# Entry
Amino acid sequence: MNVLPTGAAGHLGYYACRTLTEAGHTVRATDKEFRADLPVRVEIADLLDRPACYRLMEGVEAVVHLGNHSTFRGRDAQRVFNENMAMNMNIFQAAAEAGVKKIIFASSVQVISGNHEEHKPRAADGLPYLPLDGDVPPDPGNPYALSKQLGEIMLAYFTRQAGIVCVAIRLPWLVDDDHLGRIKSNPRRNPGARGEGFTFLHFQDAATLVDAVLRAPLIGFRIYFPASRDNRLCRSPAEVIREHFADTPLRRPLEQIDSLVDISGIERETGWLPKFSTLP
# Structure
């Protein structure tokens, strides 16, 4: 498949380009910055430049849209929101007019996590239910998260209006091998936000999910919430629920919950399962 990953010079872009190339896809990578260690040439383009987005779509069958501002922390609210929205519309509209068949969008767990800082827990001391999944209702707590939620809404629109298969992936905290090692050695040093269910995912697992979504015979629009089966506290789901989510509604009996995130729908539709874990 001819695939256009935007944001190819970023951390996830690096893993995605390598994984997609190794999987046999034809990858046309783009970013506004150059990166020399990718297996493909990076085509320099600014996604705020509308004509450039149309040029990028030539011969493309699928878009993996990673090219947004990656966080809000310490940044200008209007710039993060406005530029993310402009980049999304430029890419999605150009893809629709070029006849692209599938769009994968890097959304964020922050769409659901409210004020996701640990010292600012969301209302009602937690989450709407556990285990989490892609159906958790939005609760954005900053302009970056809001731009991601609206990106999801835009994808649903393009599925209806243009017939594009669209998948928004609400990515949790992404980690590499070094991060994973630090979690294992000292899980309480950086436990993450309670409103995000203490979730994480290895960059490589995120990249293999992108490949799995590209290959899957999906229709319509869907939202996926992938995560490692374990959590950043390195404790059993039952222990974490008792301490942090005692009042959270459970979708199955506590003793039957083996993870704080239910990824069974992703596995059923794409065959994907995460490989990296903090467990022995």
Observations:
- The beta strands are 2-6, 26-27, 29-31, 42-44, 62-65, 102-108, 165-171, 173-175, 200-202, 221-224.
